[in-house]
Amino acid sequence: MVYTRKNQSHLTSAEKRRFVNALLELKRSGRYDAFVRTHIEYYVSDGDDGLRVAHMTPSFFPWHRRFLLEFERALQRVDSAVTVPYWDWTVDRTPGASLWGGGLMGGNGRRSDRQVMTGPFAGPAGNWVIKEGETDGDFLMRDFGRPHDPIDLPTEDELARATRDPVYDAAPWDSTSTEGYRNKLEGWTSGSGSAKWRNHNRVHRWIGGHMLGGASVNDPVFWLHHSFVDLLWDRWQARHPHSEPYLPKKPPGPEGLRRGSVAARYEAMPPWDVKPDELLSHRRIYRYA
Question: Which CATH superfamily, name and number, covers 3-288?
Fold first, then answer.
Protein backbone atom coordinates (compact mmCIF):
# COMPACT_ATOMS: atom_id res chain seq x y z
CA MET A 1 0.00 0.00 0.00
CA VAL A 2 1.28 3.48 -0.89
CA TYR A 3 1.59 5.65 2.21
CA THR A 4 1.82 9.43 2.62
CA ARG A 5 4.49 11.78 3.89
CA LYS A 6 2.95 14.98 5.20
CA ASN A 7 4.17 18.53 5.66
CA GLN A 8 5.20 18.79 9.30
CA SER A 9 3.01 21.88 9.70
CA HIS A 10 -0.06 19.72 8.93
CA LEU A 11 0.65 16.97 11.46
CA THR A 12 -1.88 16.46 14.23
CA SER A 13 -0.73 16.38 17.83
CA ALA A 14 -1.17 12.62 17.83
CA GLU A 15 0.92 12.22 14.65
CA LYS A 16 3.71 14.33 16.14
CA ARG A 17 3.65 12.28 19.32
CA ARG A 18 3.83 8.97 17.48
CA PHE A 19 6.69 10.16 15.27
CA VAL A 20 8.67 11.45 18.24
CA ASN A 21 8.02 8.31 20.28
CA ALA A 22 9.28 6.14 17.41
CA LEU A 23 12.42 8.28 17.14
CA LEU A 24 13.05 7.95 20.87
CA GLU A 25 12.59 4.18 20.74
CA LEU A 26 15.13 3.87 17.91
CA LYS A 27 17.54 5.94 19.98
CA ARG A 28 16.99 3.86 23.11
CA SER A 29 17.62 0.65 21.21
CA GLY A 30 20.82 1.92 19.61
CA ARG A 31 19.41 1.57 16.09
CA TYR A 32 19.33 5.33 15.56
CA ASP A 33 23.07 5.70 16.08
CA ALA A 34 23.67 3.09 13.37
CA PHE A 35 22.13 5.55 10.88
CA VAL A 36 24.46 8.28 12.16
CA ARG A 37 27.45 6.01 11.59
CA THR A 38 26.31 5.16 8.07
CA HIS A 39 26.07 8.82 7.08
CA ILE A 40 29.48 9.56 8.59
CA GLU A 41 31.02 6.67 6.66
CA TYR A 42 29.62 7.74 3.30
CA TYR A 43 30.16 11.49 3.70
CA VAL A 44 33.16 11.52 1.36
CA SER A 45 34.47 14.85 0.08
CA ASP A 46 35.80 15.77 -3.37
CA GLY A 47 39.43 15.45 -2.46
CA ASP A 48 39.13 12.06 -0.78
CA ASP A 49 39.97 8.82 -2.54
CA GLY A 50 37.33 6.30 -3.47
CA LEU A 51 33.68 6.31 -4.44
CA ARG A 52 31.49 9.25 -3.39
CA VAL A 53 27.79 8.40 -3.15
CA ALA A 54 26.19 10.58 -0.46
CA HIS A 55 27.44 14.13 -1.05
CA MET A 56 29.20 16.23 -3.68
CA THR A 57 28.19 13.67 -6.29
CA PRO A 58 25.34 12.89 -8.72
CA SER A 59 23.94 10.17 -6.46
CA PHE A 60 23.14 12.72 -3.73
CA PHE A 61 19.39 12.38 -4.41
CA PRO A 62 18.98 8.61 -4.90
CA TRP A 63 21.40 7.74 -2.07
CA HIS A 64 19.46 9.86 0.41
CA ARG A 65 16.14 8.52 -0.92
CA ARG A 66 17.25 4.99 -0.02
CA PHE A 67 18.71 6.22 3.28
CA LEU A 68 15.37 7.81 4.16
CA LEU A 69 13.50 4.66 3.19
CA GLU A 70 15.70 2.51 5.41
CA PHE A 71 15.10 4.89 8.30
CA GLU A 72 11.37 5.10 7.66
CA ARG A 73 11.13 1.31 7.66
CA ALA A 74 12.94 1.23 11.00
CA LEU A 75 10.41 3.72 12.40
CA GLN A 76 7.53 1.63 11.02
CA ARG A 77 8.84 -1.47 12.77
CA VAL A 78 8.22 0.50 15.96
CA ASP A 79 4.90 2.02 14.84
CA SER A 80 3.49 1.03 11.46
CA ALA A 81 1.50 4.29 11.18
CA VAL A 82 4.57 6.55 11.26
CA THR A 83 6.06 8.20 8.18
CA VAL A 84 8.80 10.82 7.84
CA PRO A 85 7.26 14.30 7.52
CA TYR A 86 8.89 17.05 5.49
CA TRP A 87 9.87 20.59 6.39
CA ASP A 88 9.33 23.24 3.70
CA TRP A 89 12.06 25.67 4.73
CA THR A 90 10.98 28.23 2.12
CA VAL A 91 7.74 28.71 4.12
CA ASP A 92 8.48 27.79 7.74
CA ARG A 93 11.64 29.85 7.99
CA THR A 94 11.79 31.30 11.51
CA PRO A 95 12.67 29.92 14.97
CA GLY A 96 9.01 30.48 15.84
CA ALA A 97 7.74 27.96 13.26
CA SER A 98 5.69 25.05 14.61
CA LEU A 99 8.51 22.69 13.64
CA TRP A 100 10.52 23.94 16.61
CA GLY A 101 7.74 23.47 19.17
CA GLY A 102 8.04 21.26 22.21
CA GLY A 103 5.86 18.60 20.63
CA LEU A 104 8.12 18.00 17.64
CA MET A 105 11.77 19.05 17.16
CA GLY A 106 12.25 21.34 20.14
CA GLY A 107 13.97 24.71 19.93
CA ASN A 108 17.32 26.40 19.51
CA GLY A 109 20.44 25.83 21.58
CA ARG A 110 21.20 28.17 24.46
CA ARG A 111 23.80 30.85 23.84
CA SER A 112 26.47 29.57 26.24
CA ASP A 113 27.05 26.11 24.76
CA ARG A 114 24.38 25.73 22.03
CA GLN A 115 22.69 22.97 24.05
CA VAL A 116 19.05 22.36 23.10
CA MET A 117 17.00 22.88 26.25
CA THR A 118 13.42 22.34 25.08
CA GLY A 119 11.47 19.52 23.47
CA PRO A 120 11.88 15.74 23.51
CA PHE A 121 15.53 15.84 22.37
CA ALA A 122 16.72 18.39 24.95
CA GLY A 123 19.90 17.66 26.86
CA PRO A 124 18.34 17.85 30.34
CA ALA A 125 15.65 15.34 29.33
CA GLY A 126 18.33 12.68 28.96
CA ASN A 127 16.60 10.98 26.02
CA TRP A 128 19.02 12.03 23.30
CA VAL A 129 22.64 11.40 24.23
CA ILE A 130 25.05 12.09 21.36
CA LYS A 131 27.42 9.16 20.91
CA GLU A 132 28.69 9.40 17.33
CA GLY A 133 30.97 11.97 15.69
CA GLU A 134 33.12 14.71 17.12
CA THR A 135 31.32 16.87 19.65
CA ASP A 136 32.04 19.11 22.62
CA GLY A 137 29.43 17.33 24.71
CA ASP A 138 26.91 14.52 24.67
CA PHE A 139 23.91 16.83 24.18
CA LEU A 140 22.19 17.99 20.98
CA MET A 141 23.40 21.40 19.77
CA ARG A 142 21.82 24.03 17.51
CA ASP A 143 22.71 27.61 16.60
CA PHE A 144 19.82 29.02 14.56
CA GLY A 145 20.85 31.66 12.05
CA ARG A 146 24.49 31.65 13.21
CA PRO A 147 24.31 34.97 15.13
CA HIS A 148 28.09 35.47 15.05
CA ASP A 149 27.99 35.38 11.22
CA PRO A 150 24.30 35.64 10.26
CA ILE A 151 22.77 33.44 7.60
CA ASP A 152 19.14 33.08 6.47
CA LEU A 153 17.23 30.05 5.28
CA PRO A 154 16.87 29.65 1.49
CA THR A 155 14.15 31.65 -0.24
CA GLU A 156 11.63 30.53 -2.85
CA ASP A 157 13.58 32.53 -5.46
CA GLU A 158 16.82 30.74 -4.61
CA LEU A 159 15.11 27.38 -4.88
CA ALA A 160 13.49 28.39 -8.19
CA ARG A 161 16.89 29.25 -9.70
CA ALA A 162 18.01 25.69 -9.07
CA THR A 163 14.78 24.10 -10.27
CA ARG A 164 14.87 25.95 -13.60
CA ASP A 165 18.03 24.10 -14.69
CA PRO A 166 16.85 21.29 -17.02
CA VAL A 167 20.10 19.31 -16.73
CA TYR A 168 20.34 16.85 -13.84
CA ASP A 169 24.11 17.09 -13.28
CA ALA A 170 27.28 17.94 -15.20
CA ALA A 171 31.03 17.34 -15.20
CA PRO A 172 33.14 17.34 -13.14
CA TRP A 173 30.31 15.71 -11.11
CA ASP A 174 31.32 17.15 -7.75
CA SER A 175 30.96 20.25 -5.54
CA THR A 176 32.54 22.45 -8.22
CA SER A 177 29.94 21.70 -10.92
CA THR A 178 28.50 25.05 -12.05
CA GLU A 179 25.77 23.50 -14.20
CA GLY A 180 23.09 21.01 -13.28
CA TYR A 181 20.22 20.83 -10.83
CA ARG A 182 21.92 18.44 -8.40
CA ASN A 183 24.69 20.78 -7.27
CA LYS A 184 22.49 23.87 -7.41
CA LEU A 185 20.08 22.18 -5.02
CA GLU A 186 22.76 20.50 -2.90
CA GLY A 187 24.23 23.96 -2.63
CA TRP A 188 28.01 24.01 -3.10
CA THR A 189 29.33 27.24 -4.65
CA SER A 190 32.57 29.16 -5.07
CA GLY A 191 31.13 32.17 -3.23
CA SER A 192 32.33 33.60 0.06
CA GLY A 193 30.67 34.26 3.38
CA SER A 194 27.04 33.25 3.74
CA ALA A 195 26.68 33.35 -0.08
CA LYS A 196 28.84 30.22 -0.26
CA TRP A 197 25.95 28.03 0.86
CA ARG A 198 22.75 27.49 -1.14
CA ASN A 199 19.52 25.55 -0.66
CA HIS A 200 20.22 22.17 1.05
CA ASN A 201 23.60 23.24 2.43
CA ARG A 202 22.26 26.56 3.62
CA VAL A 203 19.65 24.81 5.77
CA HIS A 204 22.34 22.77 7.49
CA ARG A 205 24.31 25.98 8.12
CA TRP A 206 21.28 27.87 9.42
CA ILE A 207 20.53 25.20 12.02
CA GLY A 208 24.18 24.82 12.97
CA GLY A 209 25.39 22.68 15.84
CA HIS A 210 25.17 19.00 15.01
CA MET A 211 23.67 19.68 11.59
CA LEU A 212 27.13 20.61 10.34
CA GLY A 213 29.16 17.88 8.64
CA GLY A 214 28.86 14.14 8.27
CA ALA A 215 27.37 13.56 11.73
CA SER A 216 24.34 15.75 10.95
CA VAL A 217 22.00 12.78 11.43
CA ASN A 218 22.52 13.30 15.18
CA ASP A 219 19.88 16.04 14.88
CA PRO A 220 16.52 14.39 14.08
CA VAL A 221 15.51 17.41 11.99
CA PHE A 222 17.90 15.95 9.40
CA TRP A 223 15.13 13.57 8.30
CA LEU A 224 12.51 16.30 7.84
CA HIS A 225 15.00 18.37 5.86
CA HIS A 226 15.93 15.50 3.56
CA SER A 227 12.33 14.44 3.14
CA PHE A 228 11.74 17.89 1.62
CA VAL A 229 14.88 17.54 -0.52
CA ASP A 230 13.47 14.24 -1.78
CA LEU A 231 10.19 15.96 -2.64
CA LEU A 232 12.09 18.71 -4.48
CA TRP A 233 13.80 16.13 -6.69
CA ASP A 234 10.35 14.78 -7.55
CA ARG A 235 9.15 18.29 -8.43
CA TRP A 236 12.20 18.84 -10.65
CA GLN A 237 11.44 15.64 -12.57
CA ALA A 238 7.83 16.74 -13.05
CA ARG A 239 8.96 20.14 -14.36
CA HIS A 240 11.48 18.62 -16.80
CA PRO A 241 9.84 15.40 -18.04
CA HIS A 242 12.04 15.26 -21.16
CA SER A 243 15.33 15.63 -19.31
CA GLU A 244 17.53 12.70 -18.39
CA PRO A 245 16.42 11.93 -14.81
CA TYR A 246 19.96 10.99 -13.77
CA LEU A 247 23.43 11.72 -15.11
CA PRO A 248 25.96 10.38 -15.87
CA LYS A 249 24.34 7.45 -17.62
CA LYS A 250 27.72 5.77 -18.10
CA PRO A 251 30.90 5.95 -16.01
CA PRO A 252 33.01 9.01 -16.91
CA GLY A 253 35.83 8.25 -19.35
CA PRO A 254 39.51 8.22 -18.35
CA GLU A 255 39.80 11.87 -19.34
CA GLY A 256 37.00 12.81 -16.95
CA LEU A 257 39.13 12.40 -13.82
CA ARG A 258 36.09 10.98 -12.04
CA ARG A 259 36.12 7.30 -13.07
CA GLY A 260 35.59 5.23 -9.94
CA SER A 261 34.58 8.21 -7.81
CA VAL A 262 30.94 8.66 -8.89
CA ALA A 263 28.08 6.20 -9.41
CA ALA A 264 26.71 6.21 -12.94
CA ARG A 265 23.01 5.50 -13.49
CA TYR A 266 23.36 1.71 -13.63
CA GLU A 267 26.14 1.28 -11.05
CA ALA A 268 25.51 0.09 -7.50
CA MET A 269 25.61 2.47 -4.54
CA PRO A 270 26.86 1.10 -1.21
CA PRO A 271 25.93 0.06 1.36
CA TRP A 272 22.77 -1.38 -0.26
CA ASP A 273 24.03 -2.47 -3.69
CA VAL A 274 21.18 -0.53 -5.30
CA LYS A 275 21.49 1.48 -8.52
CA PRO A 276 20.38 5.11 -8.96
CA ASP A 277 18.14 3.88 -11.78
CA GLU A 278 16.12 1.86 -9.26
CA LEU A 279 15.37 4.97 -7.20
CA LEU A 280 14.23 7.45 -9.83
CA SER A 281 10.63 7.22 -8.62
CA HIS A 282 9.00 6.72 -5.23
CA ARG A 283 5.40 6.59 -6.46
CA ARG A 284 4.87 2.86 -5.79
CA ILE A 285 6.02 3.24 -2.18
CA TYR A 286 4.93 6.64 -0.88
CA ARG A 287 3.53 9.97 -1.98
CA TYR A 288 3.74 13.53 -0.67
CA ALA A 289 0.72 15.46 0.57
Answer: Di-copper center containing domain from catechol oxidase (1.10.1280.10)
